[in-house]
Amino acid sequence: MLGWSLQGFSAYLRLLFKTRLIGIPATLSASVAGSFSLGNPLGHTDPLTLFILYLGVFMAHLSVDSFDDYFDFKKDLARLKAVASDADLELLTILSRDSISARPLLAIGVSTMALGILAGVYLSTLRGPLVLVLALLGSLVILVYTGLLNRHGYLAESLLVLKGLLVFMGSQLVAYGSIYTTTIPIGALFGLVSATVAYTHHITHMPVDRSLGRITLPILFERVGGPYIGYISMFAMIYAALISLVLVGVLPVFSLAVLPAVLIHMDIARRTWGRGYEVFSGYVIRTAIGCRIIDVGLASTLAVTGLLNIGYT
User: Fold this and answer.
1) Nearest by Cα to 180 from 191, 168, 189, 192
2) What is the pLDDT of residues 198-257, one digit of tens each?
3) Nearest-CA neighbor of 270 among 219, 228, 217, 240?
4) Residue closest to 197 by CA, chosen among 152, 163, 243
5) To the nearest 10°, the Cα dihedral for 52, 103, 205, 149?
6) SS3 assignment, position 39
7) pLDDT value of position 253
8) Measuring CA to CA, which residue among 257, 256, 259, 253 is closest to residue 310?
9) How far apart are CA 105 and CA 12, in angstroms?
10) How do residues 58-96 score in pLDDT, each as one tens digit?
11) Digit-coded pLDDT (tens) for 255-267
């Protein structure tokens, strides 16, 4: 029994990294951006503190994914199999085996969330209780997010924007000892990028969501013309925010180096214009790649310019 349980754990963790790996850099990028948003953080903290910060953020991200999968598929496996994608079918197979029940799946989410909170507790001893408050708020977002996907899915993207804000603000607080309100829009930008990837993924899950009675944001946009309208709108907001933050000096001018990603998103927008949810299944990965160019590129730019103390007004 223990052997089968460990096998189930191992299979699920492999699947978690296989299907979610492209999303992990998004959360870590928001953390790196926050910790380099005001120049070189090593003049204010030490490498070990930054490592614990990034580890805590990483654990929190795994917790989100684990809870998401747990709540998304545990209730009605047979009903979902008819409309699930290949990756989801692999997950459903694992969840339906006796070797991994709801209890160990839940344990993955709880344990990773607990590790993230423990990191927050340690960092709060260095930077004050506000760090722990932000960590607890992040944990609350995790729990509310997975619940909203089942009840009020149209709010899920908004919570991802909030998650980006919390990660950015908490990382800035740990790195510099303060939160600077003028840079908070950067965190919102990172959250919006993550929300856009999630929105595209939710488009492909519209049949599943309908069968479960969920009302997600793509379903709402379908009522006013089609999910492609929301797709285009979200990317328009991303690039408008990016350019605006550079123009007002909140982001260094080198941040514009990520603009070539717009070519990917414009091509997808052209190919999906006026079409239904079915066509988006071929563009989830491309959308995510374009978004990773933006958030990983921005985080890298902030890290380099922060270490060199260049590009800031």
Assistant:
1) 168
2) 899 888 888 877 877 778 899 999 888 889 999 999 999 999 999 999 999 999 999 999
3) 228
4) 163
5) -70
6) strand
7) 93
8) 253
9) 8
10) 988 888 777 766 765 555 554 454 444 544 555 555 555
11) 999 999 999 999 9
- Residue 32 in tokens: 């790196």
**pLDDT tens-digit readout, 100-122:** 456 666 777 888 888 988 999 99
Residue-wise over 161-193: b if at least 16 C-beta within 10 A, else e?
A: bbbbbbbbbbbbbbbbeebeeebbbbbbbbbbb
Q: What angle do CA 74, 158, 178 make, to 5 degrees?
A: 115
pLDDT at 124: 94
Residues 151, 240: Cα–Cα separation, whole Å = 31
Selection from 291, 286, 260, 261 nearest residue 271 by Cα = 286
Q: Are 66 and 105 in contact (CB under 8 A)?
A: yes
Are 193 and 158 spatial neighbours (Cβ–Cβ below 8 Å)? Answer: no
Please report the sign of the dihedral spanned by the C-alpha atoms of residue 29, residue 33, residue 35, residue 41: positive
Mean pLDDT of 266-277: 88
- The yes-or-no verdict on residue 31 having pLDDT over 60 is yes
- φ and ψ of 172, to 5 deg: -65, -40
